[in-house]
Predict the structure of dTDP-glucose 4,6-dehydratase.
Amino acid sequence: MKQNILITGGAGFIGSNFINYKSKQENCSLVNLDKLTYAADLNNIQIPQEVAYHFVEGDICDQELLEDLFKKYDINTVIHFAAESHVDNSIAGPKIFVDTNVVGTFNLLQTAYNYWMHNPNEFKKGYGQARFIHISTDEVYGTLGKTGLFTEDTPYAPNSPYSASKAASDMLVRSYFHTYGLPVITTNCSNNYGPRQHNEKLIPTIIRKALSDEPIPIYGDGKNIRDWLYVLDHCKGIDQVLSNGKLGETYNIGGKNERENIYIAETICELLDRKQPRPNNLPYKDLITYVKDRPGHDYRYAIDATKIEQELGWQAEENFESGIEKTVDWYLEKYHSGLS
Ligand code: NAD
């Protein structure tokens, strides 16, 4: 069956990497619905001209628009990335997180249900091959101590307005499976990094500040731990879930790459020392500056990815050290081409 895929948030970091990846496959058409918030950049999308691709500027909170798009493009697959995604912004202004992440997800679910339910060919076969893949985060599980891993059975305990809004959206997705049989699957992923990430996030901030010879801010004592996943590995995992994931299930996606924030900063500084020495030849790590910790800062996230590895045969290909070098190279190329 041809996949007519609605990708929401496809001008953001992960969505654009997914579009670039998916555009290499045949038998699918891609509709990218994005509101073009500050986090979006259409230059992120680099696909061959012959690919069936349509960009629509719009809001997932606009239900009429969603209904038109489902009809116009006969959407049978949704990959839902669109979100407000930055924890610090959610602390400063949480409302938009509820609007987009909760209400927007609800609108998408309801539109998919209305369209697929009333399309007799799909519905007679139990929605046919239709799929709704909801992209979520491991932050819904809250924080870990020094030991333990998040599994799909870990109870939800979100600690920031961002993670709470994502947790609420996960619950809505779950309910549409149990109540209406909507063919949904949720993925909960650890921290992504790689090309095309917005400047506000940790790794682009470290690179940008270093290259402009400004203090590199690190929260608290720098000992917080995240489990890093190279964005292309995430895209491949999502594609596996789309092809072979079991309906109604959730899959944790992580790269087994737990690293302290200070290690991230020091590794990037060492790579830059080699690739782009400071004009004064001093080490970049001299720029690292500890700043006041984020309120409610989760200590540690780490994913147990056994389920997706064993059931779907997915495995992260990059370790942190190989992925971060590719990432630094990409940002250096952007820096040399004069783009900020
Ligand atoms: P991002 O902030 O880079 O991109 C989000 C995109 O969504 C932007 O292009 C933005 O314009 C668009 N958008 C925002 N509100 C919208 C609306 N109301 N209607 C339509 N489009 C809208 O985010 P990202 O890092 O690419 O994350 C994508 C998804 O993956 C999010 O759902 C996020 O929760 C999830 N996730 C991200 C990470 C990570 O480390 N970045 C990890 C796990 C899960």
Q: What stands out?
A: The chain has a mean pLDDT of 95. The longest strand covers residues 28-34. The two ends are 41 Å apart (CA to CA).
